[in-house]
Known about the structure:
Elements: H1 4-25, E1 30-35, H2 38-47, H3 53-59, E2 63-69, H4 91-100, E3 110-116
Antiparallel strand pairs: 1-2, 2-3
Amino acid sequence: MLTNKYTNKTITNYSNLQKVIDELKSISGLTKILLLTNLDKLEFKVLEDSNNWGVKLALERRYVFVVVHDSNFRQPMGSMVLQDNNSSPSAVLHKHIINRFDLDLTNEDATLIIGFDL
């Protein structure tokens, strides 16, 4: 049986995770938010280019989303310091994401991987 302390922590984490999902859904240009399982994260680590540090670091977090965005998603508000250290998946992983989640993407759609801890 779960202790009350553990149950409350789980409920709080779920509530906070739902707040993150709701916030992402409110951003113009984000069309899909998909939460990865631990198995998804393992597959993504195997398929992704080992030099893509942005994706690698995102996949190490407790919660990881694949986010699909279109051309309505805003450009960065400032210059990016490390443009090579992004969280866009490689072409191989991008194709896997499309197949894994049965996505019907247009030429204007792209994917990002976002990882975080609560």
